[in-house]
Specification:
Strand content: under 5%
Radius of gyration: 26 Å
Strand order of the largest sheet: 1-2
Number of strands: 4
Number of domains: 3
Number of helices: 19
Order of helices and strands: HHHHHHHHHEEHEEHHHHHHHHH
Largest sheet: 2 strands, antiparallel
Structural class: mainly alpha
Shape: globular
């Protein structure tokens, strides 16, 4: 589930008077009507909707006290969807639902991933004990996973986990890779085609026959993930507030305002390492005869990793899922759940701000993945500069492979890097400059 509003419930809590909130929670337990609650607390209907959301978040009250179960199911279905909807979007889809209905259910949604539909001994108040409505499903009954992979035998991995800044993300990463990652991820090539990824990512790895938890040769898919992490770390450096001296010995200044928090950086790094763990499906066995990677691999994390979701705060889990869910972006058969232009549709500055924080995190990992998968990632910057220099001197793009060779390029190698050995060089120029810029310069 991808929450585009990371801190929404915290923001709503801050709007509530503590004494009034306690009274609202008490009156909900007594099954008082909205009119009675508003009269007793002197809240407007608009204010009441905020208090209801926070009250149902903080308590164990059953939303069906005020919202019929059919509406609860509809609203929760929207909240659990691929993209996190605004209140207006839910209201527009289900006009029969009042805002008080929507916010009551949303309060339950934010409560916990273990809100039961089955019988529970937890009490809604001191007087009553009721059955709870399960909206997330129980993970308590699942058998603890066993270790499948000794991650100390996986090159780079343990060291990268140690470099994470928060302990809960380190624990989550170790559980993820040792118990919940299909073994085939570590031996898969990055692509079943030799024309898609960098040559270093096309290797097939292997595990030790005598010690099946021990990786003796890493595959290209895992190595691709390491390259994604390396790309991401380079990109994150631009947002690091520290400015070092030219020798790189000491920090001489700080520029704040663009930095990520420690857990946000950890979420992106773990997502970079684990975004492709289900590329070959959820099974452990690698099928060397398969023609394609699983096109839905970005969307299995939210189910397969649910048993360890509780290792993370819910906001951080939702953020991680949003990142891996959207890492394929326009190449995913499923529409991306978060987009830049959605920011204009939010009701408050806080919602818009949180949307763009999440959007930025999603795009950072998606872009790192894109760059790491390109065979030409080290060539493209030099080639673009050469083309733009030619254009500003000559006023045209009538540049030939011989011209580029004279500048120190090997055009045959460039074609190979772009997997376009048999296509006109003009096609590579279009890719390097971008279609719009190419058309403008080629008039």
């Amino acid at each position: 589930m991808a929450s585009a509003v990371q801190n929404i419930i915290t923001i709503e809590e801050k709007k509530c008077d503590k004494d009034k909130l306690e009274k609202v929670i008490e009156m909900i337990g007594d099954k008082k009507t909205f009119s009675e609650i508003m009269h007793e607390t002197q809240l407007s209907l608009f204010e009441l909707s905020t208090y209801l959301e926070v009250a149902f978040y903080q308590s164990n009250h059953d939303p069906s006290i005020y919202v019929d179960t059919e509406k609860v199911t509809k609203i929760m279905s929207e909240l659990k969807g691929a993209s996190f909807p605004t209140l207006k979007e839910i209201k527009s889809k289900y006009p029969e639902c009042e805002y008080t209905d929507i916010r009551t259910v949303r309060g339950v949604y934010f409560r916990t991933k273990r809100y039961y539909q089955k019988k529970s001994t937890s009490k809604t108040n001191k007087k009553d004990s009721v059955e709870q409505i399960s909206l997330f499903g129980s993970v308590d009954t699942q058998i603890p996973a066993i270790e499948k992979i000794d991650i100390t035998t996986v090159p780079y991995l343990e060291n990268e986990i140690k470099k994470l800044e928060t302990e809960h993300w380190k624990k989550f990463a170790r559980e993820l890779f040792s118990k919940y990652t299909p073994k085939q991820f570590f031996i898969l090539p990055a692509s079943m085609s030799t024309r898609k990824h960098h040559e270093t990512e096309l290797t097939i790895g292997e595990f030790d026959i005598q010690e099946p938890k021990k990786l003796v040769k890493m595959g290209g898919k895992y190595y691709h993930s390491i390259r994604v992490l390396n790309q991401l770390e380079e990109m994150l450096e631009t947002d690091n507030p520290e400015i070092w001296d030219y020798k790189g010995i000491k920090v001489i200044n700080y520029v704040y305002g663009n930095e990520f928090s420690p857990w946000q950086k950890d979420a992106m790094k773990v997502a970079a390492l684990s975004h492709d763990i289900y590329s070959g499906g959820v099974k452990d066995e690698f099928d060397p005869n398969m023609k394609y990677m699983d096109k839905h691999h970005a969307h299995y994390h939210k189910k397969e990793l649910l048993p360890i979701a509780s290792l993370l705060p819910e906001e951080e889990w939702n953020t991680y899922i949003a990142i891996v869910d959207n890492h394929m972006w326009k190449w995913d058969p499923i529409e991306p759940s978060i987009k830049f232009h959605q920011g204009k549709d939010f009701d408050s500055v806080e919602e818009c701000y949180n949307h763009y924080i999440l959007y930025r995190m999603v795009k950072w990992v998606e872009f790192a993945d894109y760059l790491a998968s390109r065979r030409h990632d080290n060539t493209i910057a030099r080639l673009r500069q050469a083309l733009e220099t030619w254009y500003y001197i000559k006023g045209n793009l009538d540049i030939t492979p011989d011209n580029l060779d004279a500048m120190g390029f090997d055009t045959m190698e460039i074609k190979k890097d772009f997997s376009k050995e048999n296509e006109p060089f003009e096609e590579i120029i279009k890719i390097v400059l971008g279609k719009e810029k190419y058309e403008k310069m080629n008039k």
